[in-house]
Specification:
The protein has one helix at about 35-50; strands at about 5-10, 15-20, 60-70, 80-85, 90-100, 105-115. The protein is an alpha+beta fold. It has a single domain (about 5-115), classed as Hotdog Thioesterase (Thiol Ester Dehydrase, Chain A, Roll). Keywords: Hydrolase. This is PaaI family thioesterase. GO terms for molecular function: acyl-CoA hydrolase activity. Pfam families: 4HBT.
């Protein structure tokens, strides 16, 4: 995936940024869907870690839903912006969007299962 940057945007949102490289492109010259899905999966855990201020080691993705709504471009950073919808004793429900300067790339929701509890 390459270098990623993580920050807390506000009390509800965390932003995971990657800089797309040529290796992330599909034959059509846009960012490959698999790259976007990997960014989304990673963002589930980084969103939870940053917003809940908890270690996430050992947790697993139970469910991941994604809707692609636009192409990702090479020239712009790709940001996954997530928020925690709900957290229970064993589960964390997260939703968000993948965006670039030119607009929305994807929308997603996921469920992470905590382990060791």
């Amino acid at each position: 995936m390459g270098e990623m940057m993580l920050r807390r945007d506000d009390d509800r949102h965390a932003r995971l940024r990657m800089i797309p490289l040529k290796r992330h492109l599909n034959p059509m010259g846009t960012i490959h869907g698999g790259t976007i899905m990997a960014l989304i999966d990673i963002s589930l855990f980084t969103t939870w870690r940053v917003l809940a201020d908890q270690p996430v080691g050992g947790a697993v993705t139970l469910e991941l839903s994604n809707q692609f709504v636009g192409p990702g471009q090479l020239e712009q950073p790709l940001d996954a912006v997530g928020e925690i919808v709900r957290e229970t004793g064993r589960l964390v429900f997260i939703r968000g969007q993948v965006e670039q300067e030119h607009g929305l790339i994807a929308s997603f929701s996921g469920i992470v299962r905590k382990t060791g509890q």
